[in-house]
């Protein structure tokens, strides 16, 4: 199953179960991938988190029913998963800018979020620079933080973690330990959705051979075939752009799949906000 096919299958599953309390595990299973990797793919391709897509679609359909039928507001609220008319009205107004009763009386405009269709994005004007390498197992040492991906917590906390290690000397200590197969500081994201949905371990680390200092933890990355993508330009926009290209352009057309083990962001020395800054994205593939 290709990435496009698997994503569309998951979207179709969501659409067919919009009136049910479906779990993210059920949705991800339709794409034959883990919760973490599914949510990453979905957000990169659609620029919308899974939970937000479900909320928008349900409120879009609720608005259609309010304007076209005589069903009571309270009944529509319950139908689309809201326990009280008040909670429904609050969510409805946040999305549409008007209350459910105003929608029923044809007062004001409403926002419609339509059913998604995933398509391959073939551009070609901006070539992606990458190469394949076989490496591993790779020992990395560093600091680890367990994070939730729910409601974008990981996106808020990770920059704070980098700010901390850059400010307290940890990044300099890791740089001194960097004698392994990958040069540079690493941002490592390890899926833990097998323990709990939306859970990941995020590491700031360095590839290191030898004894591990007591203050640091150790992680072994399995031997893998890696697709290594070059990133040129300031952080964080440049690396975010390449991540989106990988999932919207490279994976759909390359024939490769994510191997499911931790992937890496590799940061070289230098000014990360410079137009000339160089970094890499390492993705284990199969």
UniProtKB/TrEMBL annotation:
Q: Which Pfam families match?
A: GyrI-like, HTH_18
Q: Does the keyword Transmembrane apply?
A: no
Q: By its UniProt entry, which InterPro entries does this protein fall under?
A: AraC_E-bd (IPR010499), GyrI-like (IPR029442), Homeodomain-like_sf (IPR009057), HTH_AraC (IPR018060), HTH_AraC-typ_CS (IPR018062), MarA-like (IPR050959), Reg_factor_effector_dom_sf (IPR011256), Tscrpt_reg_AraC-type_HTH (IPR020449)
Q: Where is the HTH araC/xylS-type domain?
A: 8-106
Keyword check for DNA-binding, yes or no.
yes
Q: Which GO terms describe its molecular function?
A: DNA-binding transcription factor activity; sequence-specific DNA binding
List the Gene3D superfamilies hit by this protein, alphabetically: Homeodomain-like, Regulatory factor, effector binding domain
UniProtKB keywords: DNA-binding, Transcription, Transcription regulation
Looking up PANTHER family in the UniProt record yields: RIGHT ORIGIN-BINDING PROTEIN (PTHR47504)
Indicate what this protein is called per its UniProt record: AraC family transcription regulator
Species source reads Halobacillus halophilus (strain ATCC 35676 / DSM 2266 / JCM 20832 / KCTC 3685 / LMG 17431 / NBRC 102448 / NCIMB 2269) (Sporosarcina halophila)
């Amino acid at each position: 199953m290709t990435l496009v096919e698997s994503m569309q299958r998951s979207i179709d599953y969501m659409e067919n179960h919009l009136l049910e309390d479906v779990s993210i595990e059920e949705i991800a299973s339709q794409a034959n991938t883990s919760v973490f990797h599914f949510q990453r793919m979905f957000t990169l391709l659609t620029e919308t988190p899974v939970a937000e897509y479900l909320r928008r679609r349900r409120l879009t359909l609720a608005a259609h029913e309010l304007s076209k039928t005589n069903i009571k507001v309270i009944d529509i609220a319950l139908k689309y998963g809201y326990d009280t008319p008040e909670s429904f009205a609050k969510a409805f107004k946040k999305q549409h800018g008007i209350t459910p009763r105003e929608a029923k009386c044809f007062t004001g405009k409403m926002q419609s979020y339509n059913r998604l269709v995933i398509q391959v994005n073939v551009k070609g004007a901006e070539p992606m620079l990458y190469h394949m390498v076989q490496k591993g197992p790779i020992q990395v040492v560093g600091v680890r933080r367990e994070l939730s991906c729910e409601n974008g917590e990981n996106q808020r906390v990770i920059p704070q973690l980098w700010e901390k290690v850059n400010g307290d000397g940890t990044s300099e200590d890791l740089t001194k330990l960097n004698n392994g197969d990958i040069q540079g500081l690493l941002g490592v994201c390890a899926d833990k959705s097998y323990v709990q949905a939306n859970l990941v371990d995020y590491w700031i680390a360095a590839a290191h051979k030898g004894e591990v200092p007591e203050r640091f933890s150790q992680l072994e990355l399995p031997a893998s075939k890696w697709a290594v993508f070059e990133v040129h330009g300031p952080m964080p926009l440049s690396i975010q752009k390449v991540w989106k290209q990988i999932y919207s352009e490279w994976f759909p057309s390359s024939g490769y799949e994510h191997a499911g083990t931790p992937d890496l962001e590799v940061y070289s020395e230098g000014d990360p906000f410079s137009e000339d800054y160089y970094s890499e994205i390492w993705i284990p593939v199969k």
